[in-house]
Please model this.
Amino acid sequence: MNNLRELGHEVVAASPSLGVNSVTGKGLTEAVSGAQVVVDVSNAPSWEDQAVLEFFETSTRNLLEAEVAAGVKHHVALSVVGTDGLLESGYFRAKMAQEELIKASKVPYTIVRATQFFEFVEAIAQFSTEGQIVRMPSAPIQPIVSDDVAAAFVDFTLEAPVNDIVDLAGPERLGLDELVRRFLTAKKDTRQVVTDEEARYYGVVIDDKDHSLVPRGNARIAPTRFEDWLNRSMSQV
Model:
């Protein structure tokens, strides 16, 4: 948001804390009035299967209806690389429902599927920890730092809608096991990472081990390497 302001664009922030609620519809009409582009990076407060589905369906439907009424020219939404291959998860089923609503809308759109954020590696490790063992598959992943996602969204916001899905990823492809191992080593965390191809990712079986968590075909590649982010993060501790 600040990046766009620095480029001279008028930006209106919208969130429940600012009086705009996409689920109830409160404040939406006023928030999108006069807007040329709407960027949706909202996330559900609960990841329980039914709750997350209701959030994304209701929120997205309300937002798109408000945009049609206001004449918005471009809807930019954040989604997740691998969404269509991880539908065992209620969260990813909800993200898929969100994408389908966007595609069916009259508003021109760009859906940006980003890979996993560096900042969530610790949560991935914690989810898969049993005692002092962290079980992770070797499925490749191409993570990205959130700052690079924010920078890329400036470009997507200012470019013409593609009416399609665009993948966004970091510059380095690693196995999930290696990614978590590097993170724990850098933190001097004594947990042991065990490679287990039957282990789950956030509780989800990765059916297509080679492709589920990495972009397919052309993707926009961000610059920050995981090792560089790790070094910066550890120096700030």
